[in-house]
Amino acid sequence: MRLPANIFAEVETVPTGTCPECDADVHVDSDADKGDSVLCDECGTELEVVGLDPLELDIAEEEDLDDDEDDDDL
Ligand SMILES: [Zn+2]
Known about the structure:
Elements: H1 7-10, E1 16-18, E2 25-27, E3 37-39, E4 46-52, E5 55-59
Antiparallel strand pairs: 1-2, 3-4, 4-5
Zinc ion is lined by residues 19, 21-22, 24, 40, 42-43, 45.
């Protein structure tokens, strides 16, 4: 179900990005930071916040986790 098009009156400063997978609007926590993960409500794809102004989302793919690369990030 979709609401009528007066969303701009309703939404205050909740950041909204676009799901690269299905083009749906994805609401992100206003505390969200770069690198945070969010789930698309529409398709369930895990997305990563790659930009904040404007908000940009990218698909967070966990394909091959290479054990060869030791980042020592922990
Ligand atoms: Zn989606």
